[in-house]
Amino acid sequence: MRLLASGALPHRPRRRPCAQAASDRLNAWRRMQGLQSDIVIEEASFADDLEDVALHAAGLRDDWKTVCGRVPAPMLVYLHRGHQPDPRSPILQHLLRTIDHRGPVHALRVETRRALHDALDLARGLAAQAGLALVLSDPTERLATRAPNRAPLRFLLLGDARLAEHHIPASPHPSVPDFIIQESP
At the N or C end, where does the chain have fewer CB atoms within 10 A? Predict the structure, then answer.
């Protein structure tokens, strides 16, 4: 198994207090977190307009095409964290619609370093089985009571040696850094 490409994506969410209309939906989350009702809860949005809520950046579609442009459609392994304001709009389905992915997919909630380590081990195993996998690590906390996590979305494109020999990076795209092609440890 080889690391075919890796990098960070430039998309960062904007924070805003949760809308009053959403407060009823947040009561269960407050209870689960042990929060008092006067604590301000903020939500993250990738929308340009603060009135809208976008769970993912619209630019991810172009990034997906750039990263995966010259290889067969990879299996997607999506690593996410936290909760979102509206549980009726599942985050994975929103991502799949945003990037227009129709292939195999796995999503794992990753809250700790240990969970991240385990998730990456699983992703390597899935990549070995599928032949090619794109791991998208999304550290965005969509609901929070503290300063936002400003870490970038990161990706790893994992594939077998045959794909590494034939992998030709797509043309440079402003939101995707140069590809790093190397053997995985």
Answer: C
